[in-house]
Amino acid sequence: DTGVSQNPRHKITKRGQNVTFRCDPISEHNRLYWYRQTLGQGPEFLTYFQNEAQLEKSRLLSDRFSAERPKGSFSTLEIQRTEQGDSAMYLCASSSDANQPQHFGDGTRLSIL
Amino acid sequence: RKEVEQDPGPFNVPEGATVAFNCTYSNSASQSFFWYRQDCRKEPKLLMSVYSSGNEDGRFTAQLNRASQYISLLIRDSKLSDSATYLCVGLNAGGTSYGKLTFGQGTILTVHP
Predict the structure, then answer these.
(1) CA nearest to B24, candidates B56, B79, B67, B55
(2) What is the pLDDT of residues A18-40, one digit of tens each?
(3) Which of A96, A99, B6, B17 has the most crowded CB, counting CB atoms within 10 A?
(4) Given strand B4-6, what is the order of strands in its sheet?
(5) Which residues of B touch A48 (CB under 8 A)?
(6) pLDDT in tens, B62-94
């Protein structure tokens, strides 16, 4: 399968814990995006990378959130000191260029107890 | 006001019906538009791009009216398998947000026998 891969698929954790998600984009895609989706809403943009450079971060991305793409391939999204409001589906997408459609991974569903 | 607005529905139609979804956008920086389909608890998948000249893919027709900032999706001869959430999506055309997707809330379609 050469699509976008995310893991874990599900994460359940207690409030206050740190969590880290991983995204492996389609191999030839240099753009990688993170989105968050809550029930009944469309995905909301969080941040994106072109190669290893993080080019934009949404206001939704508080200082508890950090994303990296150290070698321009896979990316990680870390949430520190999780809160109930962080419960959501975290989606990763990649594209070959800025104006090309983005392809999404299966997402990581985060539940905060 | 949200940048991309959709009627959330739900739309309940019988098999074989024709159904139309509408979407409006407010961000003139959005240059390209797409319709994505999202099944329950799954990732969004690209359905089709939307062009000013209108484009058709089998039973699906999409149209963009830049003057009215209005996007539509028409589904003819609905199938049970068309049941999903349809997301109207704008792609930012320039600046640091180039490539960022802005999603509407999604329109829920249920096709029944």
Answers:
(1) B67
(2) 999 999 999 989 999 999 999 98
(3) B6
(4) B4-6, B19-25, B70-75, B60-65, B55-57
(5) 99-100
(6) 999 988 999 999 999 999 999 999 999 998 877
